[in-house]
């Protein structure tokens, strides 16, 4: 085991009343206030004097660390020009430049950019865009009004995005206000069917998807998926080659492909966009989170020419896209996004991501890969999930009431690292600028926190 890392330890502090702020996905009855006073680089400084390493990039969106002078300056410069103009029939020059830049760096012939404010909104726009496309394209097919989504998918929290999602509890709770998509498989490389091995996985899942397309293609507007990694589902990692096969199947069955890269975009997987790993251009691409480097709310929905052209016509034809957001394309956010993209290119962050990911994953694996309760260490690039299980051999999960993942993440906070679990999958996703030393210390804290909650027995010593 390595020596104790240099992260600061938690200190006792009085509980601060914070009932006015209602937090999402947080049980407020047991919430212990954690407020950030300031941040610098990869570090968060709390109001009670602690210093925490930002081990999940402020919910997967921070790219360059906090308080970056270049992005700060870009926002201030824009602030002195104009803070906001509508994107409904008007624009800001900065936002137009960002649209051009996104077209330049995105895969294939994605050539038109619709701006919104967050990832859920980007997906909502994509759904409505795909639906309206089939109503008014050159060969209208109004019956194509449903969607195919993967099992355990997560695409956001707005009503349409939740409908697409495959999170069981969400569907039980909100069922009366949701639509029902065609539900595809969960292309997981860890929990494979008993009769399928890793080499067969890609063809197996592609076959399941083709069966659904054969049956439903006449009514399907689009297949919607996160490419390579289903992030909020627990870092479910798809077999290599599956995305490319799905692209081919969508073309074969005349179904649009929507790729949700809200989480996987902007270098997280070792390419600027995850689709690039398999040379795939979706018909619609959804971006968010890292678009502004994690600074300001902004998302984008990019479309290929054949999508865009279906919305062109005379005013009287009412073909324009019937969707829009007050703050979509905000120029302050656009300035941050342009500065962030410049930094990504100038600092070579995407090229460096694979080496950093290998270092981080290897150091974690060296310490806990043989732990009796570590079932899987998986992900792509600097998107890492560590699944904790009650029985490694059977992959039996822990009782959810034990909240093992939460306990491990709390132990990490006590050791100076902020991470957040997805059930019993511990998520590690540091900013792309994290130094080698910071990555080493992050790995050490994660390993120590797992051992603090689950002990140190190895698979070999398990009886």
UniProtKB/TrEMBL annotation:
Name assigned to this protein: Adenosylmethionine-8-amino-7-oxononanoate aminotransferase
Annotated catalysed reactions: (8S)-8-amino-7-oxononanoate + S-adenosyl-L-methionine = S-adenosyl-4-methylsulfanyl-2-oxobutanoate + (7R,8S)-7,8-diammoniononanoate
Protein encoded by which gene: bioK
Listed pathway(s): Cofactor biosynthesis; biotin biosynthesis; 7,8-diaminononanoate from 8-amino-7-oxononanoate (SAM route): step 1/1
Family, similarity comment: Belongs to the class-III pyridoxal-phosphate-dependent aminotransferase family. BioA subfamily.
Enzyme's top EC category: transferase
Described purpose of this protein according to its UniProt entry: Catalyzes the transfer of the alpha-amino group from S-adenosyl-L-methionine (SAM) to 7-keto-8-aminopelargonic acid (KAPA) to form 7,8-diaminopelargonic acid (DAPA). It is the only aminotransferase known to utilize SAM as an amino donor.
Cellular component GO terms held in the UniProt record: cytoplasm
Claim: Protease is one of the keywords in the record: no
GO molecular function, one term: pyridoxal phosphate binding
Subunit: Homodimer.
Keywords attached to this entry: Aminotransferase, Biotin biosynthesis, Cytoplasm, Pyridoxal phosphate, S-adenosyl-L-methionine, Transferase
Species name: Stieleria marina
Residue numbers bearing the N6-(pyridoxal phosphate)lysine modification: 289
Keyword Aminoacyl-tRNA synthetase: no
Binding site for substrate: 154, 289, 324, 420
Site feature: Participates in the substrate recognition with KAPA and in a stacking interaction with the adenine ring of SAM: 25
Cofactor dependency: pyridoxal 5'-phosphate
